[in-house]
Structure formats: structure tokens, C-alpha cells
Amino acid sequence: MSPDHRPARRFSTACAAAALVLLAGCQVRPLYSESGGVGQRLTTVGFADPHNRIEQVVRNNLVFLAAGGAGEPTHPEYEVKFSAKSSASNILDLTNDDNTDTVSVRNVPVAGRVELSITYTLTRIRDGQVLKNATREVVSQIDVSGQSFAKLRSIRDAENRAAREAAEFVRSEIAIALSHEPQPQTVWQK
User: Fold this and answer.
1) CA atoms of 117 and 166, how far apart (whole Å)
2) For residue 2, is it within any domain?
3) pLDDT band at 15, cuts 50/70/90?
4) Model pTM?
5) From CA 174, how far away is CA 106, in angstroms rounded?
6) Rounded distance, CA 134 to CA 106, Å?
7) Residue 81 dihedral angles phi and psi, to the nearest 5°
């Protein structure tokens, strides 16, 4: 006599049906697809005025990324207020054994890092509702030279790199928040 395989077939059929039901609920789509209107909504985002050089670099990158190089909207529907700050530090602690003074080696770069922190709030202007509020941190690695100007320039370059990267993160998060906004109703006219 052969064993009955009907219960195993029923179980595998039930598992396949459950997997199809789960996959049917999956709504994966491109973030910047034209059908979602996210790209169009990004062009209606205005950005607050900067208060320091780092905020200016972040803002310039955000304006370019959001509008695709077209500049700021004249009548924004959404506003992003943000603050950004940066700090530079050495990665290695180069001190003598007695920890009294720092070892200085001429013409040998020391590893360092620049940390940029940005806190932002995305608000719908017409009703003042906050759609997104977050803080992002970006780290950029540098080689700190013994020369004063080279040290300042490497820190500034690292701040610029970190500002570009932070702007890309913020733009992506704004796009995700705007993708949850309801679609504007199209009015058809004859």
C-alpha cells in the first residue's frame, strides 16, 4: 500500500495561497515615480534662510536636489526649517606616555573627522501641520595636516562633503513624507 499524500498537498496548497495573499498586499513602487507625484511635490518645497555657512551649503544642495536645478518655488506649499552644525576632531589621541603634552610630528597628516548634524522640520504651509521632524548626522573623514591653511581647507572640504550627503538624506526623507500626502483632485472641465 502506498502512503496517502493528500494532507501534504493540501498543506502546500494552503501555504502557496497564503504567500500569494501576502504578496498581493505588497505595494512596492519607485519613490520618484511620476504616478505618485512626488517629483512634482518636491518642486513646491521652500527652505528656510540659513544662519551660518554650513546651513547655506546644506540649503543650496537641498534647493538644487528638490527642484532639479530650477531654483526655489515662488509660492511654496511646504516649508523646511532646519539648523545644521559641524565639529572637527582627531580620530587618534597622540599623547606622550605621561599624558602631559601632545606629540607633534611635522609633515605627517593625522586622521580626523568632521561630524555634521542637521535637525529639520517639514511643515505643510496651508494648515501648519508638521509632516516630518528628524535629526540626521553625517561623518566625513579627513587627513589633518600640520600646516594651518591646509588644515582649515581640509575641514572646510569635509564640511562641504558632509553637507551634500546630509542634503541627499533629507531630500529622500522629505520625498517619503510627501509620498504619503493625498493626491490633489483633478477637476475635469468640458
Assistant:
1) 8
2) no
3) confident
4) 0.69
5) 46
6) 42
7) -105, 135
